């Protein structure tokens, strides 16, 4: 139940050793990709696509419930967004170590079922006339805990399902699903909000989580045996090992810094944008849904174009250009002061280009991270990364809410847009632009201590 397009939050990261994959790989003679021959990936992909569509309905319906039905203030909107992300800030490190010691598929099933139950409470309370902003805070916080567990477990589960050479295709297909969901989801949400009201529209998301849980139950590929039971005496050393993997590696550190700063300022924008669009621009839920849908068309284009572009100019320059594109386009937001067709056209163009940039960057970043992090460190390394990247979200939400109340909605949009413009510098001042292909990282990794159990040195250090 996390709203908005974010860096580094998409299904989305780490790598198995080859022995972890028990599903046989046969290179097909089809141009549509090898993964059409992986039944278990298709089950996972189908369930996630349904869930992503449902979550896009909540992305629009939940804040509109707060804005329209509960008359939320900027500070209340900031708090609502922040509590959903707070678990990433406070629980991620411990959850990452815990996930390393448990099989990931049962965790994915349980968190999907739990989120379906929690979101189902919103339409139920609305029908009973009991819905209050405080209840939304509690539901968002609990769902945020389950979402945090789901993200960490998913990032560790996907590479056990696919061989290394298919991770880019797997991430691309998941990105396409994300984009398709974001194209259809907001439009569906806009229709549902106008037809049955915002809180009742959330029932679509609740049902989608049960579909995703069912698809995971059908997966038959066995997981590698998890690590031994957690020894409390080793908890802090294991957490610190995850930090070393993430922040001593030049590539992972650059990706974490760029994604965290992007998420911080994007959340500043997102927290006040819904208020600005409804109260200042007087947009309907349908128009707001159209903006997010067009942004997702851009994301779909980015997913389709990023691999061919990378083959021509290299992965590093593709990541750099995509990051710059996603950062610069939203500078138009504070300049939109009316709801004229021309102003709407500028907004549509900005969201479209942002979508291209985000997905064009994410596909390659996810695949590189999956290449660099071995199975035994997956949960804790992703947890340290997630602490920074997703931990920036509640900070951005609170900052956006308080700035909106203090300096106004439009100036807050300007602060967020200027902040976004600086985030690509993390990529500029890193070795990423020189990277031609992730295969060169595999060669370096083969001789690094990162693959060797019992050693904590990280390959490719400064």
TrEMBL record:
GO terms for molecular function: transmembrane transporter activity. Residues 1-23 are annotated as: Disordered. It is found in: Cell membrane. The keyword Membrane applies. Residues 201-462 form the Major facilitator superfamily (MFS) profile domain. Keywords: Cell membrane, Membrane, Transmembrane, Transmembrane helix, Transport. Pfam families: MFS_3. It is a multi-pass membrane protein. The chain crosses the membrane at residues 77-99, 105-128, 135-154, 196-219, 259-277, 283-305, 317-337, 343-365, 385-407, 413-432. PANTHER family: INTEGRAL MEMBRANE EFFLUX PROTEIN-RELATED, MAJOR FACILITATOR SUPERFAMILY ASSOCIATED DOMAIN-CONTAINING PROTEIN. This is MFS transporter. It comes from Ktedonosporobacter rubrisoli.
């Amino acid at each position: 139940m996390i709203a908005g397009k974010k860096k580094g939050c998409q299904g989305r990261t780490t790598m198995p050793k080859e022995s972890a994959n028990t599903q046989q790989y046969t290179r097909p003679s089809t141009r549509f990709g090898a993964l059409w021959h992986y039944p278990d990936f298709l089950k996972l992909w189908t369930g996630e696509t349904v869930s992503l569509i449902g979550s896009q309905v909540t992305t629009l319906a939940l804040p509109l419930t707060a804005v329209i039905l509960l008359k939320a203030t900027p500070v209340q909107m900031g708090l609502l967004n922040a509590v959903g992300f707070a678990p990433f800030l406070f629980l991620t490190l411990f959850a990452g170590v815990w996930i390393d010691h448990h099989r990931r598929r049962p965790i994915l099933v349980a968190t999907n079922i739990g989120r379906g139950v929690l979101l189902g409470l919103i339409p139920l309370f609305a029908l009973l006339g009991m819905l209050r902003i405080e209840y939304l805070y509690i539901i968002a916080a609990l769902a945020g805990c389950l979402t945090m567990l789901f993200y960490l477990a998913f990032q560790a589960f996907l590479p056990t399902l696919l061989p290394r050479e298919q991770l880019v295709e797997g991430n691309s297909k998941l990105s396409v699903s994300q984009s398709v969901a974001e194209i259809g989801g907001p439009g569906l949400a806009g229709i549902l909000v106008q037809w049955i009201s915002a809180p009742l529209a959330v029932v679509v998301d609740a049902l989608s989580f049960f579909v995703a849980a069912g698809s995971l139950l059908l997966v038959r590929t066995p997981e590698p045996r998890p690590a031994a039971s957690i020894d409390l005496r080793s908890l802090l050393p294991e957490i610190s090992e995850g930090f070393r993997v993430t922040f001593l590696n030049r590539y992972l550190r650059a990706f974490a810094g760029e994604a965290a700063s992007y998420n911080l300022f994007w959340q500043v924008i997102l927290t006040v944008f819904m208020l600005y669009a409804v109260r200042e621009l007087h947009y309907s839920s349908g128009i707001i849904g159209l903006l997010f849908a067009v942004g997702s068309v851009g994301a779909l284009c980015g997913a389709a174009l990023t691999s061919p572009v990378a083959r021509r100019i290299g992965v590093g320059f593709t990541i750099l250009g995509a990051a710059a594109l996603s950062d610069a386009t939203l500078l138009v937001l504070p300049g939109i002061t009316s709801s004229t067709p021309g102003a709407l056209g500028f907004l549509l163009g900005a969201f479209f280009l942002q979508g291209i940039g985000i997905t064009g960057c994410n596909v390659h970043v996810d695949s590189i991270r999956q290449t660099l992090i071995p199975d035994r460190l997956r949960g804790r390394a992703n947890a340290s990364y997630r602490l920074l990247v997703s931990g920036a979200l509640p900070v951005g939400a609170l900052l956006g809410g308080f700035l909106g109340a203090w300096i106004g909605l439009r100036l807050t949009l300007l602060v967020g847009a200027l902040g976004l413009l600086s985030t690509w510098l993390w990529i500029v001042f890193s070795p990423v632009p020189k990277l031609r292909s992730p295969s060169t990282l595999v060669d370096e990794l083969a001789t690094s201590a990162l693959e060797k159990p019992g050693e904590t040195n990280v390959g490719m250090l400064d």
